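Q: What does the assembled structure look like for these inputs?
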Amino acid sequence: MRDVLKKFARSQLVIPLFSLLLIVIFNLIRDVEFFSINIVTNNQGYRVLSGNLISILNGASAVAIMSIGMTLITSSCKGQDISVAAVAAIAGSVFVSVLRSNEITIPVIILAFLSSCLVSVLFSTFNGILVAVFKIQPMIATLILFSAGRSIAYWINGGATPTISSPLLASIGGFIPGIPIPTPIIIMVLFLVLISLVLRFTTLGLYTQVVGINEGTAHLNGINPVWVKLIAFMISGICVATAGNITVCRIGLINHETLLLDAEMDVILSVAIGGTALSGGKFNLYGSVIGAYIIQALTVTLYAMKVPSAAVKAYKAIVIILIVVISSPLVKEFAANLINKLFKKQAGAKIPMKAS
Amino acid sequence: MEKNNGLLAGISKKKRREPISNTNLLMTITVCTFFGMYLIAMIVWRGGFLNPQQFLDLFNNNAYLLIIACGLTMVMISGGIDISGGGITALVTMVCVVYLDDHGGTVLGSLLIAIGIGLAFGLVHAVLVSYLEIQPFIVTLAGMFFARGMITIVSIAPRTAANEEFLRLKQARITLPGIGYYGKTGNFIPAQIEPGVIAAISIVVIIAVILKWTRFGRNLYAVGGNSHSALTLGINVRRTKFIAYVLAGLLSGISGYVYLLHTGAGDAANAAQAEMQAIASNIIGGTLLTGGVGNVIGTLFGMLSLKTITNIVIASGLTKPYYQSITTGLMLCFFILLQSVILAIREKGSFRLLLPEWMRFGRRNNE
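A:
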C-alpha cells in the first residue's frame, strides 16, 4: 500500500488531481447543491441528465479532445501548436460546406467528417513538415496558420456564417435519443480510449517520449524523429477536426471568427496543468484531459458565483498561477524538504531499535 | 604595442574575411526586403506610397506595437517569450481613461499609473519565470488573461477620454520641416508625426544601445545562446532574465499610454492580437525564439515590413480583411523558411543533409 502511495506521489497525475480535488472541495463548502444531477425532460421530449457536473464534462469535451493531440505534439516537438483553433475553424467550415451541398443523412455526415479530417490533417501536416523537416520552433511555425487559418475558413464559407439544422446533427452535438448522457462526452471517452489503446499496443507512445527527451539518441537507436513528429501532428489534426465538428454540431452554425475562440490557450494550459512539461519529454494523456476538466470546472464555478463572463479570465489567471506555482520544481523541493524534516525524527528514532 | 598596431592595421582586411554573424545576416535580409518592397510599391502603385505621410503613418498607427515588440525582443533573445503585451496595453488604456475622467487625474499621474501597471506585471512575470522556473509561456499567458479580465472589471463599457489636459497632449503633432505633400487643391501639407512615435523611436535607440554596449545586453545574448555555459562563465542567469522580463512589462505599460495617445479610448478590444503581431515582427526581424540571436533594429524593420505588406494588399484592390491575414501568413511562412534554410546552410555547410532521406533530390550513397 505504501509503495503504491509512493509511486502515485511521484507520478505526473498528483498535481492535476490535487487541483481538481481543491475545486471540488471549494464547491462543496460553497454550495452542496452544486454537484447535484437531475433528470429532466428536454425540449425534444427525452429524459436526460442535467446539472453542473454534466455541463462541466460536456463543455470541456472539445478542449479535452484537442489536448490529446497537443500532448503528443508537446511531448515530441518540445513546443506547442497555437493554430489548433484556427484549423478547427477550417475543419468545421469544410464539414458544413459538405453537409450543405447534400441532403443530411448518416453516410453524408460520415463523408463530411472524413473530408474535414482529411483537410485538417493536411494543414497539420504542413505545420508538421515545417517543424520536423525544417526544424522551426513549433510556436513560430504554427503562427502562420494562427494568423491565416480563420481567413481560410472565411474563404471556404464564402464570407457567410451558414447554419445547418438536422435532428441527426443535434444528436451529435446534444443527446442521442434514449441515452441520457450528452454525446460529446461519449465521443470524448471513445477518443481517449482509442488513442490510449493505440499508444499502449504500438511503440508510438514510447517513441514520442524518446524523441522528446533526446532526439539525437532516438536517431542513433533507429527511430526516425521526423516521422514521429509528423505522426503526432497528424493525430492532432484528427483530434482538432473532431473537436471542431462537435462544436459546429452543438451550436448549429459555423462562425469562422468565434468558433473555439482562444481555445488554443486553454488547450496548452490543460496540457501544462496536466503535468506534461511544455519543454517536451514524458507525457500523460489522462493528465491533459483532467487539466481540460479543471479549466472548465473553474469556469463553471465562477459562473455559478455570478462572475460576469468577461471577467472570468482574470480569476482563471490567478488560479492558474497558483497551480503552476504549486507544481514548480522549487516549491516541490521545498515541500519535500519540509516533509523530510517532519518525518526524519520518527525515522531516526526507529533506526537504533532495529540495530539493537 | 606592436602587436596591437598590427592588429589595428589588419583589422579592415580581417573584418572583410570574417563571416557575418547570424544576427546581422538575418537583419540585413529584413532591411533589404523592406526597402525592396517599398521601392516596388512606389513604382507599381505610386499614389499613396509616394506620399511621405503614408510612410510616417506606419509609425503613427503602430508606435505601440513597436514598443511591445522591442520589449519582446529582449525576452526572446534571453530564450523566453512574453505574450502579455497586448493585454497589458489594453488594461493601461482603460485604467488611465477611468483615472483621468472619473478621479480627476492629471496627465503625469496617468503616465505614472501606466508605468506602474507595466512594472507590476513585469515584476510578477520576472519572479515567476526566473526564480520559480515556471515556463514563461504559461506565466505570461496567465498575465494576458488577468489583464484582459481586469479590463472588464474596471469598466465594462468602452470609454473615451474627455480630460482637457490629456486631449491637448493627444492632439499635439510634431511637424517635420521640409517633408510633406501637395493636397488636391495644390497647397503644401507638411508631414506630421505623433508624440508617441518619438517615444517609440527613442526606445528603439535606447534598447539597441543597451543590447550592443552594456554588460546586461551582452549577458542577454550569452544567456539566450546557452544558459549553462553562461552560468559557468559567471553570468547571473537568473538576474539577467529577471531584468529582461521587468523591462518587457515596463515597455508594455508605456505602449499602453502610447496607444491611448493615439486613439484616446479605453476598450477591452484594444490592441487585439498585438502580442502575436509583435512576435511576427520579431521573427521577420530575425530574432529567433530559441534565443541568442536578434536585434531591435531588425524588429523595427520587421514591423514596418509586416504593415507595408498590408498596405500593398489594400492598394492592389484586395480590400477584404481576410486577404490581409492570408498575405501576412504567407509572408511569415516565406521569412521563416528563408531563415531556416539559411541557418541550416551556415551550420551544416549544405541544406541537403538536413532533409530526411526520402526528400533528398538525386541519389547519393556515399554520404
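Chain B has 14 helices and four strands.
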